[in-house]
Amino acid sequence: MKVTQETEYLFRLTQFGLVNCYLLREEDGLTLIDAGLPGSAESILAAVQKLQDPLRRIVLTHAHFDHTGAVDALMAATPGLEFYIGQREARLLARDFDLDKGEHGKPLLGFQGAKSEPTRLLQDGDRVGSLRTMASPGHTPGHMAFLDTRDKTLIAGDAFTTQNELLVAGVFRVTFPFPALFSWNGVLSARSALRLREEQPSFLATGHGRPLASPLAAMDRAIEEAICQHPEAK
């Protein structure tokens, strides 16, 4: 697992050059944002040890298997570790795939679940240390992004991807179809991207691909493409 310092506070942990999770330095220690692929706990703990601060909490953007893989192992290995996830997404973590009234999208796939019980269920606008939670449904029904209020770094989960240029979840390209194939509702994804852009982030960190400094122009282009494909998002 490769560890890269991206900002004063944020460290990116990358598996196979494809899957990112992040360690965020707070006054009381480290927050892990997303938990990588199954089997990655040992590498994550090695990165924590390298940074020489205690791991205090895990916060998930969403419950897909490549973001939850190490949760149970990390919880077992770290006494007192807190575990946060959005309230709507917690049902998917528990493998409850029933939709609420008014929800619709593609079949829900890619959720392996976790045995660990969340310490806290997050709502839009909650605070977790320096992070402000932002509901950003679309990739999954309860997807959340997190804005570091110290420097306006946006940890966007899979609301955006930079694996092949900056794309919004739900956007289809023949040369790179995955953001569309693995997203639940493209219209909601485009609306969430618009909302995240309104925060004018200074730095954009995604679940897949390299982060972007000064991302606003690239976000505008990605959102324009998303709305072209999903005009109902306006």
Polypeptide structure, described:
With 234 residues, the protein is α/β, with parallel strands linked by helices. It has a single domain, classed as Metallo-beta-lactamase, Chain A, CATH 3.60.15.10. The protein is 26% helix and 26% strand. It has seven helices and 15 strands. The strands form three sheets. Strands 1-2-3-4-5-6-7 form a seven-stranded mixed sheet. The chain has a six-stranded mixed sheet with strand order 8-9-10-11-14-15, with no helix packed on it. Helix 6 (186-198) runs antiparallel to helix 7 (216-229). The longest helix has 14 residues, at 216-229. The radius of gyration is 16 Å and the shape is globular. The chain starts with a strand and ends in a 5-residue tail after the last helix. The model has no long low-confidence stretch (mean pLDDT 96).
List the helices and strands and how they pair.
Blueprint: E1 2-5, E2 10-15, E3 19-26, E4 29-33, H1 41-51, E5 55-59, H2 65-68, H3 71-77, E6 82-86, H4 87-93, E7 120-122, E8 127-128, E9 131-135, E10 144-148, E11 153-155, E12 160-161, E13 167-168, H5 178-181, H6 186-198, E14 203-205, E15 212-213, H7 216-229
Rg, rounded, reads: 16 Å
Number of helices, where a helix is a run of at least 4 consecutive DSSP H or I residues: 7
Mean pLDDT: 96
The CATH topology: Metallo-beta-lactamase, Chain A
Which strand-content bin applies to the residues?
Answer: 25-35%
CATH-level-2 architecture: 4-Layer Sandwich
Distance between the termini: 40 Å
Q: What structural class do helix, strand and pairing data support?
A: alpha/beta
Task: Let me know the largest β-sheet.
Answer: 7 strands, mixed
Q: Got a strand count?
A: 15
